[in-house]
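Hi R.,

Here's the chain you asked about this morning:
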Amino acid sequence: MQEIRKIARDKMKGYCRVCPECNGKVCMGEVPGMGGLGTGASFRANMKSLASVRLNMRLMHNVKEPDTRTNIFGLTLTLPFLAAPIGGVSFNMGGALSEEEYITSKLQGCLERGIWGCTGDGVPDIIHEAGLAAIKDLKGRGIPFIKPWEDEELYAKLEKAAQSGATIAGMDIDAAGLVTLKKMGRPVSPKSPAKLREIIKRTPMKFILKGIMTPDEAQMAVDVGADGIVVSNHGGRVLDHAPGVAEVLPKVAAAVKGSIVVLADGGVRSGVDVLKLLALGADAVMIGRPFSVATMGGLKDGVVTFIDQIHDELLSAMVLTGCPSVGAVNPSLLYEQQL
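And the predicted structure, written out as C-alpha cells:
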C-alpha cells in the first residue's frame, strides 16, 4: 500500500495530497478536489467522532478465525463493507485516469475479493455513463447512485440504471444542496416523503437513500418503502459543521434496526473503523476516499491490495475483541458503550 499511495500522490497532485493521516485538515475547502466543504468541520467531525470510539479488548475466548461474511439486500459479501460512490476523476482527482478506467478498476477489484462497489453521478455525464457501462459489463454487480435531480433527468437515469442490469440502486439525497449543479443548469433538490414514495414505487430495483443523519428521517425512509439507508454527511462535502457519522449512528440505527438495512460511511480508514461502525449499529459500512486513492495508485490491483489490508485489520480486531462473526457484533464491544 505504501507504493500504491506514493503513485496516487503523484497522480493526484493538486487535488489530494494522500496524507499519512487522511483527516481533512490540509484540504479544507478544496471542493472540487477531495477535501471537505468550507472549514472542513464536517469532514473532521467524521474523523474525530470515529476516533473517540474505543473497543474493549478481550482475549479469554476461543475465537481464532472470525467469520467476516455478511448478507445485505440478498447479497452475501465476504466482508461487511462496500466501495462508496465517488466519481468525477477529472475535477476531483486530477484526471490521470479516465472515468472508465477508474470505475471499472474499482468495481473489478471489489468483485475479485467478494464485495461490491458503488458508482457515482454528476456533471459531466461521463460519470454516470462510465459507471453504468461498468455495471453492465459486470452483469449488474454494482450499485449505481443517482443524484436527486428534477423528474425528467432523475427518471431517465433510474431507467438507465435498471437497463444496466443493476438490482440495487440508490439516491444520494445528501447532494441536494450542490448549488454548482444548479448553476450548470442541472438542478438537484430535496425530496418530500410523498415524492420519494412515488420514486421508489416506480423503481424496479431495491432502493437505498444515502444522506440520513437523524432518527426521524430514518423512520421516514422506512415509511416510504426504501430498502436501505446510508448514514452519511456526504464526506463533509455538502454542509459545513454537520455532526460526524459516529455521533449520530447509534440513535439512527436504534430507530429503524431490523426494519431496513443500515449502512454508514464517513471517516473509515481501517478495519478497526469498520468494526467500530458495526458496533455502533451499522449492518455494513461504505468506504470512500481510501478506495479512490487505491484505485488511482494501482487500478484493480490497488483496490485488491487495499481490501486485503482492511480484511486483515478487521480479522485482527475481531479476534482481539472476542467477536466470532459479523452477525455477533454488538455494542458490548465498545468501551463505556457509546450511545
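The chain has twelve helices and ten strands.

Let me know if you need anything else.
M.
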